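Continuing from the previous page of notes. For each protein in this section, the sequence appears first, followed by its C-alpha cells. Read the first protein now.
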Amino acid sequence: MTGKTARAFPLLGVLCAVLGVFAAPALAHDTLRSSTPVSNAVVSSLDLVELEFNSHVRYPVVLLHDAAGQRFPSGTPRTRGSKVTVDVAQPLPSGSYTVAWRVVAADGSPIEGEIPFTVRSSTAPLPSAPVSSAPVTSVPAPSRTPVSATGETDEQSGLPGWTWAALAGVLVGTGALLMWRRRKPAGRGTPS
C-alpha cells in the first residue's frame, strides 16, 4: 500500500463512524406510548379518545368503528405536541369497537395502528338467553388481525429512501475522492 492509500483508510473509517453515530437516531421510529382506552379494555362508556406518542406527531386521523365495520361519529382530532385527542360524538351502545389511527411521525413517516376495546354499558339492558329446546350455536364474530403490540406496521421496519440515497452519495463521493487522490499528476512518472 502506498502512503496516500494507507492514510485514506483511517479517514474513511472515521467518516463511517461519524455517519453511523448521526444515523442511529434516525433508525428509531415513533411509537404509540399510551392510549385511552387501552388495548382490549372493557369500559362502561367512552367520551374521549386519547393517544400519546413518544414524539411530536402531525396530521392525525382517528376513526371509531364497531365489529361489523360501522363507523361512529367522532370530532376532529386535536394535536398538542405528542398527544392526540378526539371527542366521541355520541354514547356508544354495548359491543366491541376499534379505534383506528394514523399520524405522521416527526421523521415524516406515517405510522398507524388499531386499538380494540369493548363497551359494557350499565344502562343498556343485557340480552336475555333464548328459551328453546334446540341447541344454541354461535357464529364467531369476524376478527381483525391486530397490528403489533407497539402499534407499528411492517412498512415502518425499513429505512426511508432518502437514507439510502444519502448513503449511496457518501460512498460514491468517498470513492471518487480516493480515485482522484490515487491518480498520478500529468507529466510525472513518465520518461521524457
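Done with the first. The second protein uses the same format. Note its length before scrolling.
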Amino acid sequence: MNLKDKRLLSILVSVVFGLVLLVIILFKYPFKEVISTFTNLTPLLVLIYLVVSGFIMLFLSLRWKIVLDALGYKIPFYKLFGYRVVGYGVSYITPSAKIGGEPLRAALLKRQGLSFREGLSSVIVDKTLELSYSVLFFIFGLLVLVVDYALSGRTLFALIIFSVITLFLLWKFYSRILRGKSVFTHLFRFFGLHKLKFLSKYQDLIFKFEKPIINFYQTKRKEFFIASAVSIISLILSLVEYKLILLMLGIDVSVGVVFMVFSMIGIAFLIPLPMALGSLEAFQISLFSITKIGPAVAGVGLAMITRSRDLFWVFIALMLSLYLGSFKNIIQKAYRDKPVLGISIVRNGKRHRLDVKIHRTSSKNRK
C-alpha cells in the first residue's frame, strides 16, 4: 500500500468513525429533541451571529496581512481574505486538527509572487500567533471548569497535565524565538532527523524557511504586538459568538461559562476527525452534563449551530474554488516552482523584494 492509499484509508476511517459516533449520539438525542432546545432562535440573533462570524474572519485576515507586511510582502487585503476563507474551509473538512488548509494558503500566495517557502513562513507566523492566544483562552476556560465544578480525580489530573505541558511548550517556543534561536531546526536536530540520510537534505530548507519567522518575532516587535492585539480581539469575538449561541438556546450564563464552551470546542477540534464529527457533540454533552447549565441535549444543539456556521464558510470556500481552480494543482505547482534568486532593494528606507524565477525546461525539451 503506497502513501496515497494509506492517506485515503486514514481519512475514510476517520470519517466512518465520526459518523458512527454522531449516529450514536443522535439515537440517544433525537433530532426533534435537539430542535426543541432552540427556544430563543430569533432572526435578529442569527443575523448578529453571522455578522460577528464575518468580523472574526476579517480580523483573522487582517492579522495575516500584518504579518506579511512586516515580512515585506504587500498583498491586497481582499485576496488574503479569500485565501483565508479557502484555507478555513479545507481545514474544517479534513481530519487535521484545523491545520489542513494552511499549506493551501501558502500555495495561493504563489499567485502574488511569493515562493511556497515564503508563503508557508508567513502562515506559520500567523498560525503560531493564533495558537498562542487560543491556548491561553483555552486554559482559562479549563481553570474555570476546575475551580467551579467538581470533577473526577482522573479528569482533573488529565486537565492539569495537559495544561502544564501546553504552557511549557508555549513558553519554550517564545523563549527561543524571541532570542533569535531556531525552533523547527532545533527540533529537527533534537530528534536526530538530520542523521537520517533521506531527511538530512531537508535541514538547510528548514533553516531557510525558518529565517523569516525568527526575523518577525525578533525584529518586528511593533507588528508582533499589533498582531497579538488583533488575535485577542478575534478571540473575544469568538466568545461573543458562543454567548449568542447559548442565548439562542435560551441559556444566559457568565463569561466564565462561555470560556468553558470555547475550551470544549477547542478540544473537540484537536481530535483528527473531519468537521469534528461526533467529537464536537460529545464534548458539549459532557460539558452541559457537568455544569448543569442546561439539558445535555442542548449541547448537541450548540454543536449543530456551530457546525452550520462552519459549513457556511465551507460553502463560500467552494464558491471561491470555482474561480481559483484545483487545490491539488495549486499546491503541486507552488511547491515545484520556486524562485531561484531573491534580491532585496532598500529604497527610501523601505525594503522592496525582487524574485527572479528561472523556469527550467522539462527533459523532453532539452537537446
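What the second structure shows: The two ends are 37 Å apart (CA to CA). Residues 358-367 have pLDDT under 50 and may be disordered. We return to this in next week's lecture.
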